[in-house]
Design goal:
single chain, 312 residues, alpha/beta, Rossmann fold, N-(1-d-carboxylethyl)-l-norvaline Dehydrogenase, domain 2, 45% helix, globular, binds ketopantoate
């Protein structure tokens, strides 16, 4: 069986290293950057866990044609790169292939539906923690549950099957579960990201800092409550108290620098469109007013304008 991980970020590196230890063939790690792929080929992926570091060999490449058809593709790129990367990895996807999409937010669901992959695709929602320390160097940050599920009918069929993928991932030591209602979990995670990611980037604080800042906390409550209203209006069964859940995550990850604050600090495009932006877009279709999300979206967009290059 051929496995490939697409995207050498923190999660991608961790998954490539973990899978490599249980697969009978070396795992491919697909990057869009040839220079970094070469480095990953030479040095492998180094995982720091519990004060020890371990090196795992990977077959890194920037050329998906070199991989050929894959049975299992763990798709770990940022939500901002979904459409371009799906095009890039087309040579790896056959009818028998199964792609698991690990993105934050919800915009990737529509993109995957619209793309029409030759194989099947399913969604993965993970609470596993990982921090990228440098190219191919990752710190394991805790083994939260990973949930897998099909999103409606248009996901295609795979020879491998979702339970087959779950069993393989579980052999790496991950906690994995196949869920019949994955959208509920996608939205529960989205609600947390709606409340934390944009605001930590605006207030320049670690996740726990939002709880100590009355204005940020009030904005978090309002944004999460609005997003919960949008979920319920679509009939999605979300957690009973999404604000309490968001505050719990802030506490549990209090020293964490959110992925969006990391993006802003590194001058990268953020995932705001897939998070608060997606809530604003769905709310508009449903005729629901979401001013707290609109404000976070607008403020992050103007922050991005201040540092992202402009290509007319
Ligand atoms: O998912 C996260 C992120 O940073 O993207 C949270 C839960 C906010 C943890 O930092």
């Amino acid at each position: 069986m051929k496995c490939a991980v697409v995207g050498p970020g923190a999660l991608g590196c961790l998954l490539a290293a973990s899978l490599g230890s249980v697969c009978d063939q070396p795992v491919w790690l697909v990057d869009h950057n040839e220079e970094r792929a070469q480095l990953l080929r030479q040095q492998g992926v180094v995982v720091e866990k519990g004060g020890r570091s371990e090196r795992f060999a990977v077959r890194a490449t920037a050329d998906p044609a070199q991989v050929g058809f894959a049975d299992l593709v763990l798709f770990c790129v940022k939500s901002t790169a979904v459409a371009t990367t799906l095009n890039h990895i087309r040579p790896m996807m056959a009818e028998k292939s199964l792609l698991l999409a690990f993105q934050n937010g919800i915009s990737h669901l529509e993109e995957l539906k619209a793309f029409g992959l030759p194989g099947a695709w399913a969604v993965a929602v993970t609470a596993m923690g990982a921090t990228l320390l440098g190219p191919g160097r990752v710190r394991f940050g805790g083994s939260g549950l990973t949930r897998l599920g099909w999103v409606g009918a248009g996901c295609g069929k795979s020879a491998f099957g979702l339970q087959g993928a779950a069993d393989l991932l579980a052999r790496t030591g991950m906690a994995v579960r196949v869920e019949p209602e994955i959208l509920s979990h996608v939205w529960n995670k989205l609600l947390v990201n709606v409340g934390i990611n944009g605001l930590t980037a605006l207030y320049q604080c670690p996740n726990g800092g939002l709880l100590a800042h009355p204005e940020a906390l009030a904005r978090m409550r309002a944004a999460v409550e609005e997003a919960a209203m949008v979920a319920r209006a679509q009939g999605i069964a979300i957690t009973a108290d999404p604000v309490a859940l968001t505050m719990e995550v802030c506490k549990a990850t209090s020293a964490n620098i959110s992925s969006m604050l990391q993006d802003v600090r590194k001058g990268r495009a953020t995932e705001i469109s897939a998070i608060n932006g997606a809530v604003v877009a769905i709310a508009k279709d449903l005729g629901i007013s979401v001013p707290a999300n609109e404000r976070i979206l607008a403020e992050i967009k103007s922050l991005e304008i201040s540092y992202l290059p402009y290509f007319p």
